[in-house]
């Protein structure tokens, strides 16, 4: 038979002195502690895992909802703007500003509008960063024009919007009537002499963009 | 006529209590009920022998509290002066002095004894050493779960009995009093007071049962010894000295007949002394001992004079502690475990339900996403593909004002009623000398918010005959322009005739030929055409 150590004997003596009810109570406390220490950690762990799974599900649901909303917004955006996108590409908004072609285009504009005179000054192009890594290129152009009819200058103003690859943005103009229409002036016109009854100035920007390196436009 | 004496309401309300008087000769249990002695038991002074009897007596009323009166040897009293300190430190200082006065672990207490004019306070320090007798009885009560409400010293608690039993002082001066009682617990108990303060207590064991010593002789001898003792403590001949003896006949008569070196000698029987004390008759007639008198006196006081406590905390009785606490701890542990398990179970079930709900919501969201992605797949471009360029285009066309629609709107408004001789469109982007022209004074205030400004110089039709008509037509044109450009601000900058308060008016008249009517033409002459200047301004936010 195994001998009890002094500690065990003291405990046994201690328990022997206790009333029976107290010993039963100590037994219940011991069982409670054993159950608590043995089972509660697993229970806490199970609850923690369930709550973690719920949190993950909530996060995933919110993310999926957000993606669905974004997809709906993207759909509406593309529908609203695909025409503008195509138009911009068709205008050659991403083409490089070719100054030689621009000079030729200026001559064409003068001829198309039947201008008596057209002088222009094309300043140096300015480039600045734009959205999405694009570079905004802007060339200020100042023109002095003279015509026989106001309609000719109006035709020029209308043509300027689409005259160059990209966008022509009119910043201002000034048209003034010059000499009165006299019989002498009419006679000179009849003789084929271009008489500048109207003079004016036009200021506008030739604007285009350069895509970021590696970017390409086009359809899906 | 017999006076009917009823116990006081205070005693009736006080209820029951056990007083356990402990001495070296016996232990006496007295049950007090309603200010009367209801019962009394005597047991052996040895706790090992007498505890069972005492506990039997106490168990006759399990809920009645127990008080202990110590009537054993080795009770020490000492008056000590404690320096004046503030109120909050008083108890700490007194406890320290008490511990210094009685080193070791004793039952002890301190009782205030007044103060001197300097503010120093006097305390009566009382102590009972931890003898086997004391420890044995208190331990037995503890084990039986009848821990006493208080442990008190019999001489100190019965001191006031002297005041009640002695006649008024015969003369002025210092007053000494001595009380003799025969107690079963200790023998002949003497309590000596001076000016109402306890000075000496003495205890003389009773003679052996088979001896023939006269109790009166014992009292006499002890009185002589006590007198000699108190003389050393300052008693002088001429001081008031009153002696009270509780003794039964025939001892009482013998004491009365003897000559005592005292101003008064009062003798009562223990049975009848209660009448003098206002407690009624006590116990059985003929009983010589005064233990129940002391017990009843103690039980009927408003509060004890001093409650003894161990100077050091007693060793923890773990068995007792565990025995008392284990059932509660077990109940609390089981309840806590069940509650915790229940709470965890509820949480787990609720979480599982929430997971199921969340999974259904996730399925709905995934279906929505799939539907939207399918719609996106039908498009020619993706949003990410076109968004940067659209933003670029927005920036490229910022500030662009299509001139042709503007001019068409202007032409429609004038409709051939006037001829535009000068037309200028200005935008904030233009700036510099190219903007040309004068800045309109009226637009100066809102220049910073201007989107575009259209300046017009208009020549009125040649059939405008006079200034009034010119002004009328100019106003009409301003109204027409205002209607056509209702979203913009239209203003006449310069009227056809200089009539404005801020304009210069010039005149040059020549006398006309008599037969010709006077001309009403303006200074510009009938051949000149009237010109008007307007501006149309689109302001930011309009």
Provide the structure class of chain B.
alpha+beta
Strand content of chain A: 15-25%
Q: What string gives the helices and strands of chain A in order?
A: HHHEEEHEHE
**What's the total number of strands of chain B?**
18
Mean pLDDT of chain B, rounded to whole units? Answer: 83
Oligomer: heterodimer
The total domain count of chain B is 3
Number of helices of chain B: 14
* Rg over C-alpha atoms of chain B, rounded to the nearest angstrom: 61 Å
> What spatial form of chain B do the alpha-carbon principal axes imply?
elongated
- Can you identify the CATH class of the largest domain in chain A? Alpha Beta
Number of E strands of chain A: 5
User: Strands of the biggest beta sheet of chain B: in what spatial order?
Assistant: 3-2-1-4-8
What is the CA-CA span between the terminal residues of chain A?
Answer: 89 Å
Helix content of chain B: 25-40%
Envelope shape of chain A: rod-shaped
Largest sheet of chain B: 5 strands, mixed
Structural class of chain A: alpha+beta
Which chains share the greatest interface?
Answer: A-B, 81 and 74 residues
């Amino acid at each position: 038979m195994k001998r009890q150590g002094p500690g065990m004997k003291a405990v046994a003596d201690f328990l022997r002195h206790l009333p029976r009810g107290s010993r039963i109570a100590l037994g219940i406390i011991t069982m409670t502690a054993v159950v608590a220490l043995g089972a509660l950690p697993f229970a806490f762990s199970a609850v923690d895992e369930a709550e973690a799974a719920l949190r993950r599900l909530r996060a995933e649901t919110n993310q999926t909802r957000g993606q669905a909303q974004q997809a709906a917004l993207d759909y509406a955006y593309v529908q609203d703007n695909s025409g503008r996108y195509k138009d911009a590409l068709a205008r050659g908004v991403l083409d490089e500003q070719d100054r030689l072609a621009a000079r030729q285009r200026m001559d064409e504009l003068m001829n198309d509008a039947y201008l008596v005179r057209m002088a222009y000054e094309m300043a140096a192009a300015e480039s600045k960063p734009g959205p999405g890594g694009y570079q905004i290129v802007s060339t200020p152009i100042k023109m002095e024009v003279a015509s026989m009819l106001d309609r000719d200058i109006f035709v020029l103003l209308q043509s300027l919007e689409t005259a160059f690859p990209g966008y022509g943005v009119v910043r201002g103009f000034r048209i003034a009537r010059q000499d009165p229409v006299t019989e002498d002036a009419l006679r000179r016109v009849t003789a084929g002499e271009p008489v500048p009854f109207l003079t004016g100035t036009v200021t506008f920007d030739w604007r285009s963009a350069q895509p970021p390196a590696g970017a390409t436009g086009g359809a899906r | 006529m017999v006076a009917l004496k009823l116990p006081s309401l205070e005693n009736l309300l006080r209820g029951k209590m056990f007083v356990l008087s402990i001495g070296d000769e016996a232990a006496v249990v007295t049950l007090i009920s309603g200010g009367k002695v209801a019962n009394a038991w005597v047991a052996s002074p040895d706790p090992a022998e007498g505890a069972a009897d005492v506990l039997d007596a106490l168990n006759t009323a399990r809920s009645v509290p127990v008080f202990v009166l110590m009537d054993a040897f080795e009770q020490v009293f000492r008056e000590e002066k404690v320096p004046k300190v503030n109120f909050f430190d008083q108890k700490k200082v007194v406890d320290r002095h008490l511990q210094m006065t009685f080193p070791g672990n004793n039952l002890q207490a301190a009782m205030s004894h007044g103060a001197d004019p300097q503010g120093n306070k006097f305390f009566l320090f009382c102590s009972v050493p931890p003898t086997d007798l004391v420890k044995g009885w208190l331990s037995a009560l503890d084990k039986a779960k009848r821990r006493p409400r208080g442990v008190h010293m019999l001489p100190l608690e019965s001191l006031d009995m002297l005041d009640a039993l002695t006649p008024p002082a015969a003369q002025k001066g210092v007053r000494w009093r001595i009380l003799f009682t025969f107690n079963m617990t200790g023998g002949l108990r003497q309590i000596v007071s001076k000016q109402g303060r306890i000075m000496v207590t003495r205890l003389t064991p009773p003679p052996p049962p088979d001896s023939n010593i006269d109790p009166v002789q014992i009292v006499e001898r002890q009185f002589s010894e006590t007198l000699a003792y108190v003389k050393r403590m300052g008693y002088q001949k001429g001081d008031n000295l009153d002696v009270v003896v509780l003794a039964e006949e025939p001892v009482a008569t013998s004491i009365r007949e003897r000559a005592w070196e005292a101003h008064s000698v009062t003798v009562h029987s223990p049975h009848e002394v209660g009448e003098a004390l206002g407690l009624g008759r006590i116990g059985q007639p003929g009983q010589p001992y005064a233990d129940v008198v002391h017990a009843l006196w103690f039980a009927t006081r408003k509060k004890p004079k001093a409650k003894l406590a161990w100077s050091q905390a007693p060793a923890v009785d773990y068995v007792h502690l565990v025995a008392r606490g284990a059932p509660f701890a077990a109940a609390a542990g089981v309840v806590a475990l069940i509650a915790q398990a229940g709470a965890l179970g509820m949480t787990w079930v609720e979480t599982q339900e929430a997971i199921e709900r969340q999974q259904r919501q996730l399925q709905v969201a995934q279906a929505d996403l799939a539907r939207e992605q399918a719609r996106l797949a039908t498009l020619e471009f993706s949003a990410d593909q076109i968004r940067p360029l659209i933003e670029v285009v927005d920036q490229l066309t910022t500030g662009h004002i299509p001139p042709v629609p503007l001019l068409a709107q202007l032409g429609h408004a004038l409709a051939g009623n006037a001829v535009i001789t000068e037309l200028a469109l200005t935008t904030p982007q233009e700036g510099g000398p190219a903007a040309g022209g004068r800045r309109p004074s009226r637009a100066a205030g809102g220049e910073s918010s201007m989107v575009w400004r259209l300046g017009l110089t208009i020549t009125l039709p040649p059939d405008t005959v006079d200034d009034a008509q010119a002004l009328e037509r100019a106003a009409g044109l301003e109204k027409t322009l205002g209607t056509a450009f209702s979203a913009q601000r239209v203003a006449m900058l310069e009227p056809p005739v200089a009539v404005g308060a801020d304009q210069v008016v010039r005149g040059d008249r020549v006398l006309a030929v008599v037969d010709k009517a006077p001309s009403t033409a303006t200074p510009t002459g009938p051949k000149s055409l009237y010109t008007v200047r307007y501006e149309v301004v689109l302001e930011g936010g309009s």
